[in-house]
# Entry
Amino acid sequence: MVYLDNAATTRTSPAAMDAMAHVMAGDAFANPSSQHDAGDAALRALEEARREVAACLRSRPSEVEWVSCGTEANNQALLTGAAYGAREGRRHIVASAIEHPSVLRMLERLASADGPFGGGFDVTLVRPDETGVVGVASVKEALREDTCLVSLMYANNEVGAIQPVRDVCRMCRKRAILFHTDAVQAAGHVHLDFARDGFDMLSVSAHKFHGPRGVGALLCSKRVAPAPLLLGDGASRVEALRARLVSRLTEAGGVRVLGPQEPSLRLPGIVALALEGVDHESALVLLDEAGVCVSAGSACAAGAVESSHVLAAMGVPSEVARTYLRVSIDATENDECSIDEAADAILQVAERLRGSAR
Ligand code: PLP
# Structure
C-alpha cells in the first residue's frame, strides 16, 4: 500500500504509541483531579505533556488548552472570539472562504438568529487569489469598526497554500481584533512560534502529525479567556468557584451554608448562605449598592422578600431563614476576581448590618 493521504490523517508513530501505553498501563492512569498519589502521577504526566506541546509550538504551558481534535479547537476558538465580540458589542467576524468546514459551519451557526451569544453575527468570507492565497489587502478591506475576530488558516488542506497569517495577525492586534489561526495542517510541517507571532489562538490536532486520534490543543494567549465548550468542564469550574467563595466566607465566621454539602447531592452553582444576625432584605439593598447581584428568595407583589417556603419545609427556623442569601454561580459569567469581589462585599455588608443592630 502506498499511503498518500497524510493530510487526512497520519499513521500513529511508535513513539506516540509508547508514550500513550506508558501512561495508560503505568502509574499515570488515574484522574489528574483526584487527591491521591495516583492522581498526582496523572497530573504530573499531564503537565509534562503540556510543557512538551508548549515547547514545540513556542508557547507558555499555561496557554495550552486540551481538546479532542482540530474541529473542537476551531469551534472553541470561534466561540471564544464571539464571546469577546458579544461582550464588546462587536458582532462582525472575518474569515477566508477556504477555511475547513469546522470553521465555516460554526460561522453559519454564529450568523443564525438563534446562534450562540445571541446569534446574528455578521460574517465576511474573504476569497483567495487563483493560487489559493488570501491577500493581506483583501482582509484589511473586510475589517470594520465592529470586527471582533479574524480567523485565517495557517495552511490550506486542499492546495497546501500558506496564508499570510503573521501580517494579518499584526494588523488585527493594532485594532484590538482577536486573531485565530487553524494550524491543523501546518503543525509538524512548518515552524510554528506562537509567542513570536503574537497569535491569540491557534488550533492543532495530533493525528495530523503521527499523534493519536482524539487529542488536540487550542493555544490561547493569556490575553484571551477560552469560552468553555463542554458542560462537564463548566461544572468543575463552577465547583472550584463555589469552593473559593465558601471558604472565604466561612473562614471569616458568622456564615453557614444551608443544603447538602456533598457535591453529588447538589447543583454546583447554587450556594445557600445564612448570615448570622443579618437581615437579608437589608443585605440585598447594600449588596446591590456595592454592585453585587444575589437573591434572598422570591419577591412578593409588593417587592418585599417573601419568606422561603422551601427553607420552612426543610425545618429551618424563621430567624435563620430571614438571613438567607442565594448566590448562584455560572462558568461563563463569573471568574475568580468576581467571586473575590462578591465575598468581600458580603462580609463587609454583614459586618455593617451586625454593627447597626447592636
Ligand atoms: N482544520 C483543517 C485545516 C483540517 O485539514 C482538518 C482535518 O482535515 C481539521 C481542521 C479538523 O481536524 P480534526 O480531524 O482533528 O477534527
Q: What stands out?
A: The pocket of pyridoxal-5'-phosphate is lined by residues 69-71, 74, 100, 102, 153, 157, 182, 184-185, 205, 207, 216 (CB under 6 Å). The first strand starts at residue 64 and ends at 67.
